[in-house]
């Protein structure tokens, strides 16, 4: 076990730091001459393009990765994309039709709820696509087609490198599905260039390790943490909060910033730490206004922004700022989750909890 961890103390730490490599592996051989080639999907692209909707189905981190991919899949395909937590779909026996494409996302490919939802969708005649890290898994075998994320074996119960590879695979799927649209060609080319640059940018953001350890020290005794995101980074808020919750055993909640005034604002005081994700994209000015409102209520603010934006997100210098490299807006969730993963890791170590095997959790949840 020690050998496999290399120079790292924990698998989670190793898996966070190997993301420049795992993302490279995820994309290897799939980006060619300004286009994306996904062998496992190519015979089904036409059917997917004619779907009446695409449904993402998964649990936990895999669901969050799909949520991060949803905006640009909608943008590039022009097809409505809906989200389903596998257990909720099963509880409701929600309608699924043969004109639907159901995309199942699962690192292990063995999560019981996701597999039961897959059988349900197959029974309803939908085209079923798998996105998994595990070759030969039940998910890979039971779906009609799919894409392996090729992130390499993930041991830590907290999913880290699989999350970023899942987003990248779904970005590539969106590019492949939308490849027949001339109107979005320039946008697609910009995203493909962004994908090629991504491992380098991930290596850059990993240099925040020390800074995130310092931040973790300042949060070690807090009871609770809120994370506000929106747009492409609503998923980052949910996933960042999930990481802190599951390994650092600290209550944390990811929230849609657009919902702040509809309840969560009542929680704001000088003690509750709030992370606001405000990197540069179409929602930036709305996030600036969220920061101002939280500031006016004396919130304890930690703002994640693009490099160079510190002064505009935090004019009074009254909040702690985490500056991250800027990439294509739809790929920014891959960058933004990394400081959150580092924060969760360091909080866990500092609080003295088990990093790789948090209490009560299993890597793969094979019972309903
Ligand atoms: C991730 O950190 C969690 N341990 C958990 O939410 C996990 O993502 C979920 O159980 C789904 O697992 P899967 O991707 O293997 O289906």
Automatic annotation (TrEMBL):
Residues 44-184, 215-358 form the SIS domain. GO terms for molecular function: carbohydrate derivative binding; glutamine-fructose-6-phosphate transaminase (isomerizing) activity. It is an enzyme of class 2 (transferase). It catalyses: D-fructose 6-phosphate + L-glutamine = D-glucosamine 6-phosphate + L-glutamate. Coiled coil: none annotated. The keyword Repeat applies. The keyword Glycosyltransferase does not apply. Pathway: Nucleotide-sugar biosynthesis; UDP-N-acetyl-alpha-D-glucosamine biosynthesis; alpha-D-glucosamine 6-phosphate from D-fructose 6-phosphate: step 1/1. Keywords: Aminotransferase, Glutamine amidotransferase, Repeat, Transferase. Its EC number is 2.6.1.16. This is glutamine--fructose-6-phosphate transaminase (isomerizing). GO terms for biological process: fructose 6-phosphate metabolic process; protein N-linked glycosylation; UDP-N-acetylglucosamine metabolic process.
């Amino acid at each position: 076990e020690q050998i496999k961890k290399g120079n790292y103390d924990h698998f989670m730490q190793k898996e966070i730091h190997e993301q420049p490599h795992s993302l490279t592996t995820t994309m290897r051989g799939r980006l060619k001459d300004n286009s994306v080639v996904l062998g496992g999907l190519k015979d089904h692209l036409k059917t997917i393009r004619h779907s009446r909707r695409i449904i993402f189905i998964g649990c936990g981190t895999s669901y969050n990765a799909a949520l991060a991919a949803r905006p640009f899949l909608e943008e590039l395909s022009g097809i409505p994309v809906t989200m389903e937590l596998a257990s909720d779909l099963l509880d409701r026996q929600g309608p699924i039709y043969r004109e639907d494409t159901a995309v199942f996302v699962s690192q292990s490919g063995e999560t019981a709820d996701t597999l039961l939802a897959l059988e349900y969708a197959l029974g309803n005649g939908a085209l079923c696509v798998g996105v998994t890290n595990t070759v030969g898994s039940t998910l890979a075998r039971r779906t009609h087609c799919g894409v392996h994320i090729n992130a390499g074996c993930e041991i830590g119960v907290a999913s880290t490198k699989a999350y970023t590879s899942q987003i990248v695979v779904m970005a590539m799927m969106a590019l492949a599905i939308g490849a027949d649209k001339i109107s979005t060609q320039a946008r697609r080319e910009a995203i493909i260039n962004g994908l090629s640059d991504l491992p380098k940018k991930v290596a850059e953001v990993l240099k925040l390790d020390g800074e995130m350890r310092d931040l973790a020290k300042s949060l070690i005794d807090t009871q609770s943490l809120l994370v506000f995101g929106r747009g492409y980074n609503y998923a980052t808020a949910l996933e960042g909060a999930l990481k802190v919750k599951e390994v650092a055993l600290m209550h944390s909640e990811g929230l849609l910033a657009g919902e702040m005034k509809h309840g969560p604002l009542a929680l704001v005081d000088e003690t509750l730490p709030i992370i606001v994700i405000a990197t540069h994209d179409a929602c930036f000015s709305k996030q600036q206004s969220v920061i101002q409102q939280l500031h006016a209520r004396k919130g304890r603010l930690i703002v994640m922004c693009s490099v160079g934006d510190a002064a505009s997100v935090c004019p009074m210098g009254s909040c702690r700022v985490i500056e991250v490299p800027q990439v294509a807006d739809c790929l920014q969730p891959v960058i933004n989750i990394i400081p959150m993963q580092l924060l969760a890791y360091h909080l866990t170590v500092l609080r003295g909890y088990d990093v790789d095997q948090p209490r009560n959790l299993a890597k793969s949840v094979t019972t309903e």
